[in-house]
């Protein structure tokens, strides 16, 4: 095993261990996820060159230090959820200009916490992770709110939350605003259950789903699709169909034998519940093996 493969295996072991811990560390999971994209350079991610030596090539320690630093810049004595929301908006959305735009949806970096901290741009869910982690370190009653189509942040009592939109720099959200997000994404009305605090592993899986969607629109980036699926499979709870998606990716990447074997393993799982689908998967495994001839 090469040093690179060994490093990847160790990070994934750490990711799986953290995901199964009693209190998963959201920042650490997001940073280990971000490390899958490769080393973080001073300007853009790049492979390490011969002679480069970095104790933190994937920016994990540096990102944790930056989150601590930002938390230390918040004023002392904040006592209300609205006060916390205002202070975070002034610090992150104002002084440090964290926010997002439509163009950020086209960049993989927008889903990588290390890069979001460096660029101060990202998707709503990653910007929300920054807010959550900075606020949490300062003692705020903060949590993520996974509205359909747009992730936001809540402060205080989840029954009567103070909501803000980190993607818009921390703009306060009313219940009507949240309802518009839901209606735009699903056509349905806002249900109070949608305002429940999102658990760390739910947030991580949603980030990985975003990355898979980004890569699916770019057939040349099956490498990104594969590591996003691999990390999703390390979470304690994940869609079983991801195993089939992984097998298909292996075939697309020319690893026909491995892909076919994993399709057959998935078919065995399906046999008891969806025998017709299982047979279809077996036929696709045979077709994959035929590509070896």
Task: Explain the overall architecture.
This protein is α+β, with helices and mostly antiparallel strands. 55% of the residues lie in helices and 7% in strands. The protein has twelve helices and five strands. The protein has helices spanning 3-19, 26-35, 60-72, 81-95, 113-119, 124-137, 175-186, 200-216, 222-234, 242-252, 256-270, 275-290; strands at residues 142-147, 150-155, 162-165, 171-173, 197-198. Strands 4-3-2-1-5 form a five-stranded antiparallel sheet, with helices on both faces. It is globular, with a radius of gyration of 21 Å. Residues 43-48 have low confidence and may be disordered.
Shape: globular
The number of helices is 12
> How many strands in all?
5
The helicity comes to: 40-55%
Strand proportion: 5-15%
Low-pLDDT segments, ≥5 res: 43-48
Helices and strands: which structural class? alpha+beta
Largest sheet: 5 strands, antiparallel
For the terminal residues, how far apart are their CA atoms?
A: 29 Å
Reading the helices and strands in chain order gives: HHHHHHEEEEHEHHHHH
Order of strands across the main sheet: 4-3-2-1-5
* Cα-based radius of gyration, to the nearest Å: 21 Å
Mean pLDDT: 92
């Amino acid at each position: 095993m090469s040093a690179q493969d060994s490093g990847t295996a160790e990070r994934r072991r750490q990711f799986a261990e953290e995901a199964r811990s009693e209190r998963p560390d959201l920042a650490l999971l997001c940073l280990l996820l971000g490390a899958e994209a490769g080393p973080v350079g001073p300007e853009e991610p790049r492979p390490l060159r011969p002679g480069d030596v970095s104790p933190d090539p994937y920016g994990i320690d540096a990102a944790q230090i930056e989150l601590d630093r930002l938390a230390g810049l918040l004023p002392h004595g904040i006592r209300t959820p609205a006060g916390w929301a205002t202070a975070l908006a002034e610090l992150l959305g104002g002084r440090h200009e964290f926010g997002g735009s439509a163009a950020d949806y086209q960049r993989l970096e927008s889903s990588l916490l290390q890069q979001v901290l460096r660029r101060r741009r990202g998707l709503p869910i990653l910007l929300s992770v920054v807010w959550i982690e900075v606020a949490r370190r300062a003692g705020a009653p903060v949590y993520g709110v996974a509205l359909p189509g747009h992730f936001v942040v809540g402060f205080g009592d989840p029954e009567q939350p103070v909501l803000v939109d980190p993607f818009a720099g921390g703009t306060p959200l009313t219940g009507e605003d949240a309802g518009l997000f839901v209606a735009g994404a699903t056509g349905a009305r806002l249900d109070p259950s949608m305002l429940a605090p999102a658990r760390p592993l739910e947030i991580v899986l949603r980030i990985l789903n975003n990355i898979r969607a980004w890569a699916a629109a770019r057939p040349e980036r099956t490498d990104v699709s594969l590591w996003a699926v691999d990390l999703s499979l390390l979470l304690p709870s994940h869609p079983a169909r991801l195993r089939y998606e992984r097998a298909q990716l292996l075939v697309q990447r020319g690893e026909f034998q491995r892909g076919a074997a994993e399709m057959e393993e998935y078919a065995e799982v399906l046999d008891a519940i969806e025998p017709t689908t299982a047979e279809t998967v077996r036929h696709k495994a045979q077709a994959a093996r035929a590509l070896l001839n």
